[in-house]
TrEMBL record:
Source taxon at top rank: Eukaryota
Entry's localization field: Mitochondrion inner membrane
UniProt keyword annotations, A-Z: Membrane, Mitochondrion, Mitochondrion inner membrane, Protein transport, Translocation, Transmembrane, Transmembrane helix, Transport
Lineage: Eukaryota, Viridiplantae, Streptophyta, Embryophyta, Tracheophyta
Name assigned to this protein: Uncharacterized protein
Example of a GO MF term: protein transmembrane transporter activity
Positions of transmembrane segments: 14-36
Pfam family, one: Tim17
Amino acid sequence: MREPHPDITPYPDFIIDAAGFGFVAGGIIGFPYHFIKGIYNSPSGRRLAAGAQSVRINTPPLVGVSAAYLALVEIFHYTMISARKKDDFWSHVLPSFAAGACLPVGRGPRAVATTAFCCLGAATTVYTVRHFGCRVLPPPPFEDPGLTPPSVVDSIPTESVRDADLRCTQHI
């Protein structure tokens, strides 16, 4: 049996984390979208109730699909890295293509192709922003984990520092 890639965790916690993130993200996106859509498409006396009913009916399928999609992406990503023993552009983009092809299988080949290529474009965009966007931003400040943070006592100025500060302010 081959050893998994050393950069990834060899247990399925990341799949559960991805599904949980998809669940939350689907709810965060689906709730306001379907609420506004329900309010817009209802008669004037029932707008609030129609918005709530639209959320209750339409948000759970969106939440489930987004959780399943992200779980499938992580499964395919882990499988590709374990099989190829390298983590590169294709290991990030092709799992999204495969997951996008797996979800709409019951709706026919046209839906499979459309969803797969849309997911491929989205994954390429996310990969580009993640891996090349860091060159635009400044690097985070370096912190040595071996150093202990200064205590409050160290931040109190000593007598010589206070005297130097007083001398500087007297000349101004």
